[in-house]
Structures
1.
Amino acid sequence: MTGALGIFDSGVGGLTVVRAVQELLPGEDIVYLGDTARVPYGSKSPETIRKFADEDAGFLISRGVKAIVVACNTATAHALPDLRSRYGVPVIGVIEPGVEAALADPSAERIGVIATRGTIRSHAYQHALAQKKTGLMIYAEATPLLVPLIEEDWLDKAATELVLRDYLEPLVEKGIDTLLLACTHYPLLVPVLRGVLPEDVRLVDSATTCAEHLKRELGRLGLLRSAADGGGLEVHLTDLSEEFETLARRFLTKAPGRVRRAVLES
Amino acid sequence: MTGALGIFDSGVGGLTVVRAVQELLPGEDIVYLGDTARVPYGSKSPETIRKFADEDAGFLISRGVKAIVVACNTATAHALPDLRSRYGVPVIGVIEPGVEAALADPSAERIGVIATRGTIRSHAYQHALAQKKTGLMIYAEATPLLVPLIEEDWLDKAATELVLRDYLEPLVEKGIDTLLLACTHYPLLVPVLRGVLPEDVRLVDSATTCAEHLKRELGRLGLLRSAADGGGLEVHLTDLSEEFETLARRFLTKAPGRVRRAVLES
């Protein structure tokens, strides 16, 4: 699919971005790569993450994509500048769109950020938020149990609510007005989060904000397709298993079609 | 360390086996490899797991080890026959020792098995148990949230107890007399499990049973060293991060010394 959008993630979480892009830009073809053989990236070293991200982007480039979306917070945090300098197509991450959306409401002053340990430790969100607006109070919390709970489909279990309360209590006590969901898995948690957080806390997620940012960028560069043109989706995973295919269906809320096995050049 | 024991796992869980071996065989040198760049194996396909396990074993063989312990249930389930036919040293997995220990008590009749999804789906424990004793009732339950909870050090949190009760209730209702902890992470859960399970349920874990089996095998083959000889430990990880080093310390209950970065041949 030459001229498609290339979207990659360490696993299947980035499919929430695919879903948001499909809804907002129905004319675009999408080539998705999930590096399921090496998922997760969040706990790995910056050097290793950069190597993996470069191999992922190389695969998408070899499929002739017109732009690359890094639908993985960890890879965005560590590899975005490298990818931008190496490849001759626009490369869009998930951090800048999320940060812009969090600050779009001028009353946002106390921002909570939840993400994997790797993303929090990179300080990428904290840094980007602080750069955009002075005087912000930023409360970042690593919440590494949320991805396994989401992948287990334990969204309606009491244990999940207990884990969320445990993680979010310190942020609520700080009086956050905005909670930035800085992991592409987390949009699936929104209904549970609504029940745990005070009503007036705004939720901002990586997936929809990234799709909106992408639309603006492609428009600016004259790279948008009309809705009548395409809408195809190719899903490539570096490891195939029944589990990943089940997850892929849950994340996309529709069948992904045939899932192919990708072999990366290292 | 020529003549050392080689022990590998997908990550740091296998260090519980290292600890058990150090206690039981203090004279042995140990070379440990954790494939932290590609952890976890449990959710990946059998084909990918066999490829990874072969690369792990190849690394240990290149260090001159006299025997290989596959301290990973998923790799044991899928790769043990391949490794045994390929390498000219004894290769010991974690499944057979656990199964033998579970059945060592002749009154064992109703056996619960908990493990990652990959191990349960392989049916390796169910098959090995059924082969050794006829008429057994075997209740296998995938418990994929336990590894993240252990790695998060949430052992004393209410959420962990709730997750355990959720997972174990069906097994307790079936009246199990033995619970086989078929994941090398799980020995760290023993104190919490004791509070959740009825008192008369026997707990059998992968790590200590594997060390006991190894001692018998090395003795049989004349490969045991005397306690005065060695006791060195080399830890190699395919990806280094602060997180892995912290985990390694918790799993070993003592400092692992300098942790080295391993590069595998693929």
2.
Amino acid sequence: MKSITKYLTFHTEKRFKLINITPEIEKIVRESAVNEGICLVNSMHITSSIFINDDEIGLLQDFEKWLENLAPHAPTEQYLHNDTGEDNADAHLKRQIMGRETVIAITKGKLDFGPWEQIFYGEFDGCRNKRILVKVVGE
Amino acid sequence: MKSITKYLTFHTEKRFKLINITPEIEKIVRESAVNEGICLVNSMHITSSIFINDDEIGLLQDFEKWLENLAPHAPTEQYLHNDTGEDNADAHLKRQIMGRETVIAITKGKLDFGPWEQIFYGEFDGCRNKRILVKVVGE
Amino acid sequence: MKSITKYLTFHTEKRFKLINITPEIEKIVRESAVNEGICLVNSMHITSSIFINDDEIGLLQDFEKWLENLAPHAPTEQYLHNDTGEDNADAHLKRQIMGRETVIAITKGKLDFGPWEQIFYGEFDGCRNKRILVKVVGE
């Protein structure tokens, strides 16, 4: 069994940002030399997500509006968590809808994807360094 | 390490449909001859889901009503994505709530399930061919 | 390839309860003697979740209020599932938002976590025995 573990760091300029990270993950899969196996990609923070969806600019804006409606940032006093002095309770909730991680099949040395699958890093409380983990396991 | 990769195709008659695919996945696990390992099942499209829940007819109707309330199809103009000429933005959102994939333990050659766990394909933008991927990895 | 499979049982006194189970999972990872691999943790029931988020008391109360708003328990007659005589349709829905499972990287013999990641069992229909599955696979 082969395995490779990599950490990527993101620092967004805005609180909310969705970033297509597919090329970075493809590079790690090539480097792993795994032909058959799986690739785990997860956020190492609890106010951001890894998810797979379509890379379409209108849709990415729809996601932001929709998440803001389901888990609004303001008023920040609506959340007990924010009594700690933080203001990011909404980001902890948004992350549950969008998910922490994805597990992707590797077949014949590549991410085994449908035609529109793209991997996103979803940042809901940015403006600081945050990490994701990529682990490839297989043969 | 053994591995097996299979693709299943679904074509629903309605836009929204939840289909119990447990028997198809069990068949692939038997075929893999893996005794201890994991089984990844994921949608290869970004407007459908794989998820595990109970196979109870009333509950499946509750899911449809609930998802329609959280991410309504109409009015389609409420989503920027639909300016592309598509009308399926809601399906991209519904899929985030229900999830892309599941990872299931295989123990002693079988899906290691609790008494009510059933695997579903969740179609939110059907009436055309769509694929799922099944990958079994183990020994 | 090594693998280990364990089952943990929970019985909460309240219908809704979020329990930090990180120490129990760390113990199983140590016992597995796996250095590089993955750890799957999943609920074996369809009205509870495994998820990773922050262990902060205010946040845990925020989760309860937020989930109750997105998938309310009462009035129970709003759900067709409850015509079966059960009253837990909301728990089936809450579990979809919070997720069934998590897959965690194991690196150098430990759960490869960011600074605030904690594993939770999310019970949405408690007051009876329910099980989770932990499977470690690797080398």
